[in-house]
Amino acid sequence: MARSNEEVEALLREYADLLLITGGDAYRARAYEKAARAIGGHAADISQFDAKALRDIPNVGRSIADKVVEYLRTGTMPAVEEARAAIPAGVRELTAIPALGPKKAMILYEELEISSIDQLAQAIEDHQLRDLKGFGPKSEENILHGIGLMRAAGNRIPLDEAMDVADDIVSALSKVPGCRRCAYAGSLRRMRETVGDVDILVAAEESGPFMEAFTRLPLTSEVIAHGQKKTSIRTTKGLQVDLRVLPLDSWGAGLLYFTGSKAHNIRIRAIAVRHGLKLSEYGLFETKSGKTIASRSEEDVYARLGMDWIPPTLREDRGEVKAALEGQLPRLVEESDLRGDLHTHTNLTDGLESLEDMIAKAERRGYAYYAITDHAPKLYMQQMTEEKMLAQRERVRALDRGRRRGDTRLLHGVELNIDVDGDVDWPPDFLEDFDLCVASVHTQFGMDRKAMTRRLVRACENPHVHVIGHPTTRLIGKRPGIDADLDEVFATCARTGTALEINAHPDRLDLSDENILRAKSHGVVFALDSDAHSTRDLDNMRYGVGMAQRGWLTPDDVINTWSLTRLRRFLRKDTGHQPPT
Ligand code: DGT
Ligand code: CA
Ligand code: CA
Ligand code: ZN
């Protein structure tokens, strides 16, 4: 995606944070944040935009547009540089801790001269924070928890960031003369929710030109190791990337080995040994003679071990090897199986783009149906009302009536808020006229387990709630999931015919792979949704598909792969939800 948009988004966000740290106007900081989001999510590349074109983007005013133009022209934004200079780097690092935030970070710096995460952890241990104004024992606990989350995430990178880097590198190296194959492997190919480092493989006779090109990529900021077989770099954003060049003959074996996981590799190596064979990144060999049995393609290697080819998303040693030996691998859901998206927003609430633009993009994605599910009134900042919702419905219905055969059909839905008691925004007679209701937890994430379980169970029991949105509400690396008895929630979903969402936004990926597996064992069905707030977000579906595959889901498990007729039958929840087979 357009790099300028991303860079400007990051800068404006940073500026908003800096404003808050220095005690600046919160309203002004919010304006910068909104503009950051709008530019980051803007469909067109802004690198050639002038101030006027920038001001046409929603939430971008004159002063912000001017700053962005200056940045695009000179490569720096003086306002940000000045703000940065006024604040120690360590304090900015503190603001990244969930539960702390800019204002409190500045207090810690001014009162206790804390300017690093280690110093902060020490201060908490010494109980220095509880006597500060605005802090207390509970906030010490919360901050410590936030530090823990951040450290647990380690230096792992969100899936989408790693994917963007990998796509760039693969496309650059594929153009180097002599390239026979180029692909990414490792945890990224397995679509893990976060990625430690990116592993790239090239098949070619000579490695030199690839290593050279790799170290000279625009995104390379540091060369960690430079060799003939393997070169490692760090990108400008701090992500490590390993490149390995192998002969075309061992492509399959190399791809298999470097895709992992390690546990999967160990499992299949043991099978090789039982066959009197040896498996390495170079190939499958006869142990005694050293003769090559297979190496050119993954399919060959698996086949010679008596297995079906195993999709990378399953290679976690969770029973896939046994299933492959028995010919029992599931037919995994793929992006092309999806016939629609059931959770999306427009600029009627916090989406960035209009109903028409979102629908046009859905059309381009080839969807048979598309649900618009803007926020409901209890999320106050969205300023939703019954009137606005009904007016939107009229527009959706009118647009839908104008559809031709083969066009995307439109469903009018809503994303309801599950309150602490498990109730939602509107009474049954109002909910009844939506085609689809997603219900999500957006507030009070800290309720105790028993109350939280009850809250979700009650929402599932609501005959008008069809899908539970981002069920655990986690934000990867930032906010833990809610504490609830998920087995009880999953069982309730199965009993009531409520689908659980797999939210494809890379910050959420909620449910996670492990929770999907658990939910599936209860007999739950799933909605694989983008939760898009911009046309670009609709393409995040690939990450949700990755999670669904990691959870062993087939098309039949995912309600938005179904025909519209079957889906509509499912949505008549109260009158018998049993999906036909
Ligand atoms: P990451 O980078 O932490 O997200 O996870 P991976 O799975 O990408 O791990 P990485 O980058 O250390 O190595 C890539 C693959 O190479 C890994 O999935 C399996 C393979 N591999 C690496 N080291 C070993 C090893 O010691 N034994 C075996 N069997 N395979 C290994
Ligand atoms: Ca890796
Ligand atoms: Ca690696
Ligand atoms: Zn949403």
UniProtKB/TrEMBL annotation:
Residues 52-71, 92-111, 127-146 form the Helix-hairpin-helix DNA-binding motif class domain. Keywords: Coiled coil, DNA damage, DNA repair, DNA replication, DNA synthesis, DNA-directed DNA polymerase, Exonuclease, Hydrolase, Methylation, Nuclease, Nucleotidyltransferase, Sodium, Transferase, Ubl conjugation. The keyword DNA damage applies. Its main location: cytoplasm. It catalyses: 2'-deoxyribonucleotide-(2'-deoxyribose 5'-phosphate)-2'-deoxyribonucleotide-DNA = a 3'-end 2'-deoxyribonucleotide-(2,3-dehydro-2,3-deoxyribose 5'-phosphate)-DNA + a 5'-end 5'-phospho-2'-deoxyribonucleoside-DNA + H(+); a 5'-end 2'-deoxyribose-2'-deoxyribonucleotide-DNA = (2E,4S)-4-hydroxypenten-2-al-5-phosphate + a 5'-end 5'-phospho-2'-deoxyribonucleoside-DNA + H(+); DNA(n) + a 2'-deoxyribonucleoside 5'-triphosphate = DNA(n+1) + diphosphate. Residues 3-316 form the DNA-directed DNA polymerase X domain. Its EC number is 2.7.7.7, 4.2.99.18. The keyword Protein biosynthesis does not apply. Residues 345-401 form a coiled coil. It is found in: Cytoplasm. GO terms for molecular function: exonuclease activity. This is DNA polymerase beta. It comes from Streptomyces javensis.
